[in-house]
Design goal:
Shape: globular
Helix content: under 10%
Number of helices: 0
Largest sheet: 9 strands, antiparallel
Number of strands: 33
Strand order of the largest sheet: 29-28-32-33-1-26-27-31-30
Structural class: mainly beta
Radius of gyration: 23 Å
Number of domains: 2
CATH superfamily of the largest domain: TolB, C-terminal domain
Oligomer: single chain
Distance between the termini: 8 Å
Amino acid sequence: MLRKIRAAQAFMVVFLTAGQGLAADLLVCDCSGDRIVRYVDTLPASSESIAGGSLNCPLELTFGPDGNLYATSFYSGSVLRFDGTSGEFLDEFVSAGSGGLSQPWGLTFGPDGNLYVTSSGNERVLRYDGGTGAFLSIFASVGLVSPSTCLFGPDGNLYVADRATDEIRRFNGASGDPLGVFLDAGTNLETFVYGPDGNIYVTGTSSADVRRYDGNTGASIDVFIPSGRGGLSDPRGIAFGPNENVYVSDANSNKILRYRSDTGIFLGTFVEGIDGYGMVFSPPGAVSQPTILLTLGSTVLSIQAADPLDVAGQLLNGATLSTVHIFAWICRPDGSVVDIRPESFRGVRAIPPYLSLSIQKRLGLAGEGLLTNPGNYVLGTRVIGAATGGLLSQTFNSFEVAQ
């Protein structure tokens, strides 16, 4: 099959299923704008606003077990629910004042499926039914003064940041019993997150940096992103993306800055004009991705995929097609790998509503016999910055060639 492409068999169409691509939506709380901003496929030019109900200064957000998006509304004193895919407002999941809720800040779903919300106005963590939003109990309060972010750790316990004491306190994940101070950040602690390495990353407003702590012991490791790097001066929200980057919002400049998640090296300004408190990436399956279409001709392979390009044909951080290297390869059923080395680009165009791109790459002689045998194939693509050598995107997509 396709040993030699004949005129009557000028092209072949294969439908690919979305594989281990790195595309994901970044959702950011914009407190001053009373909205949540979603950047589709983590593209600065593809923002859309999510608002509705009594949303008034959202501070943190999370995806629930049902795939929907939940956000705290600080000034209205409630927790709102939005459709996890469309962003449509669904309901007030936890009503204002329920169980004594006052100035809600952080929220997380526990291993038991229930929702835990920090009530910063009265120094406690409240627990609600994860299915109905009904108040269940005051889960934790000992030692808390101004609780913000709360997360369940890998050990099943609940960790709560306190903006007044600059501490992260630990509570038994089942009973809420206090287990003491896990770490003292020694700075105006704003929020924290677990990194892909299992360690804890803390944003500090007075120190204007991001600090790293051992996720098991709470011991200080280092200053991961020092003050001033990339213009960092008032860090608030932080989120690790699926693209080997970490995003930090800066309230002083109203920017979201992008760094390498392994080294903390500054990569560039992601977007401007948003205060960006809480940030979260959409979970796997929550991003709308098109079926990827592969068309093989005698010399041209056309790939419609979610490469990190916006509608203007610009790569993330302002890079253009002339400042990146794009690599593609196909792994065949027998385990052999064929490199697709593009000689030129025949065009780039947007494919709404996915903000994906159709990239045509000339194959030359590599096109002959590329899909020789029936079976399962894997198409890989990688986009690398020409100047820095940094990885901007990497995707793997499987497809099948029939007999």
